[in-house]
User: Fold this.
Amino acid sequence: MEIIIGSIPLSIEDVVRVARYDHKVEIDQESKKKVNHSREYVEKLLAERRVVYGLTTGFGKFSETYIPSEQAKQLQINLIRSHACGLGNPFPKEVARAIILLRVNALLQGHSGIRLKVIETMVEMLNKGVTPVIPEQGSLGASGDLAPLAHLALVLMGEGEAYYEGEQMDGGKALASAGIQPVSLEAKEGLALINGTQVMTAVGTLACWDAQQLANWADCTAALTTDVLRGVKQAFEPETHDIRPHAGQKQVAKNILKLTKDSKLMTEQGELRVQDAYSLRCAPQVHGASRDALEHIQEKLVIEINSVTDNPLIFAEEDKVISGGNFHGQPIALAMDYLSIAAAELANISERRIERMVNPQLNDPLPGFLTKEGGMNSGLMIPQYAAASVVSENKSLAHPASVDSIPSSANQEDHVSMGTTAARKAAQIVGNAYKVLAIELFCGARAADYQNPENLGKGTKWAYSFCREHVPFIEEDHVMHPYFRKLEHLMKDIETTQQLEQQINA
Assistant:
């Protein structure tokens, strides 16, 4: 499947397919015209020796320093080399690929003044599998993601480091191996490459996609846990949710009812108990709030994915160059802090359901810690410890990054978003939440073995079978870590998530 970029807005799924599944990219013809027109205007400005930020001036606090047009090329090279100050471990390859895609999409809007050749080289890198090594730390999230994007630009110039065919190597060697010519940057192009929010947006887009699938899995594991604990089904019936009509809440209640349909384990109100604990009964309200948050976050990300976020911006038709603040990452920073909270809560309530399944004071008639030979075997005692540890870690990570700001560039850039930090933390929390839900699925399947899986509902039986397809039932104590890890990876896989959606939408 080839993704056409430029005039056609990119979706979150488009980004995932290119970044994670290596789909090819093609630039549409209309965007090529826009880019060429914008570049012609930049050449005109240079010929007229106009004073334009980043074109014939220095950067940041040096914006008042005039640079002669004959030094414009060297100015761009110096910019990239001086700004490539990234720190820490490199981003995963999928994130680096998403960064390239989003930067290309922004440049194709025709307001950046960059040559088409530079953009086409970036597309070649995507299509031929040359992935820059981009350190994940070092961005303030305003003036764009300067440091990490400079590492992308280095590879375009034939410098820096890149991955190619499973090997990390010199950027120039990677380009040569793939048959790609490095680019010699010209006026405005270095600034156009690094002044944007594409790093925080790339991290956030992949994390949001994963969180949306996580929300489906949370409904699935909650349904399985509720089923094996013989939950009261009236809590999910529509009357309650119709009179508090939050969209997410209504959706979750509907999902759990569908997944537990035809269950012989679910109970009527008063049959075993009048009402369940909150982690079961309030799943629609808690999961639903996270779903509503994810809808808002997706809206913000889709806008950002298809926006122009560098500076200055070229408006060739109006004969204008405007220095504004589209590079400021605050819209994404706030959304990423919201994502952190939304995902952390899905993990929080999941861990409480795990506790109810294994605790012998709460899980009657199931055996304590889901083992028949307690004492000799610890059963599933420690998986709950592991889930609790990860949930506690998420609480620390969920502290908002967007409320912080440290002035930079001699106080010229006196408020920054910390949006990339917020996005990185959100992605870590989403990853941790998958670990917790994998444990809940593992425990739910074990509990179902003691309740007879044939008694499960239509959808919960599918969840049980999915787990048992990849994880055997072993009653004696054994090493469980590999199984948790396997389930976690499978739950993120696009084909598996589509199977789950089919169960939910059946």
